[in-house]
Backbone:
């Protein structure tokens, strides 16, 4: 008899965004004349940069010609032309990452979700609460015990390590989804020391690093001494270059990073992950990799910067309104997420319904990310300037937060 | 301490194609003047069909325009425009598959490798020997017990079920990689009955179905009565439409297919897989899905047929030579693989070295696919007509098989 992996029974039934989708759908059906503004799910609105489209098209045409056609990629881990560009990109913030340490993925979510495959089911996983659900659900499926570190108003939604608590695998996300908080170098150093002391591994989700504008804040965990022996970093082109529907990201695994057998023998983590990918993945589409390469060209980077500025304008529209309304929030400055709380709405879903029903604005209830999210609410800066301004106008005029 | 999933220690160290690659590399370095003909790895040589390139390019351009840009795909399971085409494609061989039962993947290998996630680690997996290594390695990583059914000359490399042996998950590949053998409907019916009697699940790898030219041979397991309650089917566009480097495939999961909890409760398999994908995958690149859609257009199908005919010509060049040399083989007629044996070379790697060193032809030693592959050798029909003819000429003139 084919048996279920019963860890699946431990998963929550309703995925946050499914529930939001259902409520919005019902509202839209009942109110067909309303102009709904969606600032819930973290999808972008700007198209691929022109330089990216040109490179993407060129590679597609190569695939139609026998002499330039590319089949299976030898390694399935990414072409050198792209890995080299990522390595160069890291140099810009003072981090030395060898091209061979860069692995190209079809997006941060795949690597993030599949990464558990190489860890023992007996390991304990630490996540912050509130948390991006993928870290939790993928580890529940893998049968690992999950413990949480409280992120809350007191610590600025930047949970720090507690040496009395033991964790083997630690997920950190900075700039944080959902709270928009960003760790300082000193704070990350505490996590790196914690992990090195325990031979634990930090999975550092840097999907939003490009939104960091303050030069002192770290854009990579590898800016921290000691990170190369305890951390992997997962990155995305989704939000910077509009790859949400085109699918490409990259993961950095330092050569010196190890896992340990039960008899305490070191096993190279990168080799183990490559062995996993060798059996369960066959590389990212060649034209998509050429498109990603163009993101890192001078022209591509100029367009990415313009896109980031556009989204940062949205973030400022939102935070200016919250400042005006005297509402507490984190994020918005070095992050595309704005995480706010309202004394009048201690229940996140009540505020969700209020915003949807009274001003046709869709956000994300913070309680969907964990118990510490209750009473908080997430807005994203990925809409258009016009819609963001309109949403804030409606809120300012109609809702007492 | 971050611990290794120790199932990884049970994997064989040297992956077959890595070893082949190393031997070929050494030979090429020592013999820079030799014209090496590669008929080992199953990569294709013909480019993407023109209709596919046109659709692919158009979709890339859409991604560069705000009004037509597509970000995250809602479901991550494939756009309806492509799922509908796959559903239509099945109708051509008399199979009714609803669009909602078709899930779009970034290639057969990913779904094949990741599929184990939803099964209990306590399940027993049955594979044929010889076998495509992905079935074995991905299940070793998942901690499942693997048993083998002998495929050999006596049963035409089409292992049949033995009711005395118990298996919960069964991997079948027809047309077979590596042996080129194809199950008849009656034979598949035996497997379907075996699986239904045990509530087991068949993972049917139909990556090479388009190579079947005899109308009585089944191109889908869903042509067999009872398959919808016991089978999933994994398909690929890699070999038919040249998607080895473009990456797209599809998996069919019938609505009525279940897994069972340890207390014998039925859980829908498709829902479980969708839950898995929802946390660990974010869909296939939109332009790639548009390219795949064009494979199923009238123009695309005409070009695919021309490509198949081209590769079938190669298969005939190979089998004509083997017939002439009085060498035993399977495959070649309804399959792109030709699997032959030579009395003079009972050691597959010895024949590999002989072909490489004496005539600069690269094939795949059968022993790399399992114990029953010893003494056998795989050639692929995916090279060019010219190179295939040249390789066969060299073998005919130089090597006594």
Residues:
């Amino acid at each position: 008899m084919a048996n279920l992996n019963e860890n699946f029974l431990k998963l929550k039934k309703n995925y946050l965004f499914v529930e939001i989708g259902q409520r919005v759908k019902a509202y839209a059906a009942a109110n067909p004349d309303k102009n709904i503004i969606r600032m819930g799910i973290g999808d972008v609105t700007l198209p691929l940069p022109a330089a990216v489209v040109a490179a993407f098209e060129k590679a597609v045409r190569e695939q139609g010609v026998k002499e330039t056609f590319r089949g299976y990629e030898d390694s399935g881990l990414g072409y050198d032309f792209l890995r080299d560009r990522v390595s160069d990109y890291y140099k810009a913030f003072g981090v030395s990452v060898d091209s061979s340490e860069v692995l190209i993925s079809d997006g941060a979510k795949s690597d993030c979700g599949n990464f558990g495959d190489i860890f023992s089911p007996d390991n304990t996983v630490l996540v912050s609460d509130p948390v991006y659900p993928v870290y939790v659900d993928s580890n529940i499926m893998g049968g690992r015990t999950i413990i949480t570190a409280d992120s809350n108003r007191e610590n600025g939604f930047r949970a720090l390590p507690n040496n009395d608590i033991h964790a083997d695998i630690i997920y950190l996300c900075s700039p944080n989804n959902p709270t928009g908080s960003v760790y300082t170098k000193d704070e990350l150093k505490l996590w790196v020391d914690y992990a090195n002391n325990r031979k634990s591994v930090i999975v550092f989700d840097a999907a939003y690093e490009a939104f960091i504008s303050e030069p002192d804040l770290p854009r990579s965990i590898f800016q921290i001494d000691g990170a190369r022996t305890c951390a992997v970093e997962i990155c995305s082109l989704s939000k910077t270059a509009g790859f949400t529907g085109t699918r490409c990201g990259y993961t950095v695994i330092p050569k010196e990073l190890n896992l340990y057998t039960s008899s305490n023998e070191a096993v190279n983590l990168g080799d183990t992950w490559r062995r996993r990918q060798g059996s369960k993945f066959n590389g990212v589409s060649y034209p998509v990799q050429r498109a990603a390469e163009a993101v890192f060209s001078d022209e591509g980077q100029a367009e990415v910067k313009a896109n980031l500025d556009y989204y940062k304008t949205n973030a400022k529209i939102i935070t200016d309104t919250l400042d005006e309304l005297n509402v507490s929030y984190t994020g918005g400055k070095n992050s595309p997420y704005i995480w706010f709380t309202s004394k009048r709405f201690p229940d996140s879903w009540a505020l969700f319904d209020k915003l949807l029903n009274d001003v046709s604005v869709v956000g994300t209830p913070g309680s969907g990310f964990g118990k510490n999210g209750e009473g908080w609410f997430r807005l994203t800066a990925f809409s258009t300037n016009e819609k963001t301004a309109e949403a804030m106008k409606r809120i300012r005029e109609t809702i007492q937060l």
